[in-house]
Design brief:
Layout lengths: L33 H31 L15 H5 L7 E3 L2 E3 L1 H20 L6 H29 L4 H23 L9 H9 L2 H25 L2
Antiparallel strand pairs: 1-2
Helix pairs in contact: 1-3, 1-5, 4-5
Length: 229
Amino acid sequence: MSNTQTPSPSIVSDSPTRPADGRAGIPAGWRHGAVWTYLVMLLASAAALVASLVLSADTLQLARHPESKLGCDINATLSCSAVAESWQAEIIKIGGLSYPNAFLGIAAESVFVTVAVIGMAKVAVPRWFAACTWLGGLAALAYAYWLTSQSLFVIEALCPWCLVLMASTTIQFMALSHATVTVQALPSGRGAAGLRTYYRLGFDLMVDLVWIVAVATVILVKDGPALFL
């Protein structure tokens, strides 16, 4: 009898296009990797954190010296004071005390900075953590846009640092969404293939550009002439 044994078949994926780790169709390349996507998120989150710190300092300055003029009070339209003194600047009230939005921004953006550093380090995180991070980014974006809409159409004054915060939160969400799909491989359901194709073909670049131009256009149409008076 022969001692030759038939080699056992190697473990392979069930499809040549579906890796064993289940990351089928994930876009490849540096633009879709953890370092780049989370680096963009880190830079945007850091800018938002700086803006929140400046706004917090301005809030304390107005509380101590109500009649003082802030450095970003440029004219009647570009005025941090007008926005800071509105009720929209302190919508969180607990126990009879109100908390400026800027303080919330410091807390939130510190978390996003930390998440971005973790992402750049390629630390594996649970899927629920990645999903909750994206939902947190969506909530931050909605909050920033609500405040911007209030400044444009209700308060009728724009805070330069608030605009920086809105712009950086927008870029932060774009980068976080990119990383969630291409790095964290979420979602994994029916719409996953379409989202992966969206990033693989670079459609996100076009959509992001149109998004930014659209926001800038709304601001310029509404308050353009008044911004430079």
